[in-house]
Amino acid sequence: MTSPRLLLALLTVVPLAAGCNFSFSSGGPDYKKLESAIADELNKQYAPMSQQVSSVECPRPSGSPKAGSSFNCIADLDGHDVRVEVKFTDDDYNVDFATLDVVFDLAETGKGLSKEVSQEYGFDVRVDCGDGLKVVAVGESFECEAQDPTGDKRPVKVTAGGPDKDDTWEVVGG
Predict the structure, then answer these.
(1) Average pLDDT for 149-172
(2) What distance in Å separates the CA atoms of residue 148 and residue 137, rounded to the nearest whole number?
(3) Which residues in the chain belong to E strands, given as ranges?
(4) 43: which DSSP letter?
(5) pTM of the full predicted structure?
């Protein structure tokens, strides 16, 4: 297959949508409150996978942040780092935050791809992506392995789409 295909309801975890808004206290940034808000929002996103963020750590800039400034926080999801970009929207410490990574449940991704690839090619194809979680930067790719009924194997390239773009897949070399 030469053109990428969209994954339709395949992945159980998507990046936090851009525009999640959070307001700091008016006396200055409350980083603990921000970290808690990020964890709460991510935990809502990861609930379908029965996963919980164990911690979120944000840097503490030396000066007061201004509108337009940003930094990245790190959320720990089952030992995997998930990057969250925090942008200050005004000088009152209101922020928007969005994930920079997509979390894939590899077993569920393989099951979904098996269905999608089989449907596309018109015969049964089994796709194996492994087990566990995989965190992939938006726009980056990883490979799974597809096998047809004759035993022929081909890689399937999966590209993380992000909050504004769907994830895609393509069978490589076939």
Answers:
(1) 92
(2) 29
(3) 5-6, 20-23, 53-57, 70-77, 80-88, 94-99, 101-105, 126-128, 133-137, 141-147, 153-159, 168-171
(4) H
(5) 0.83
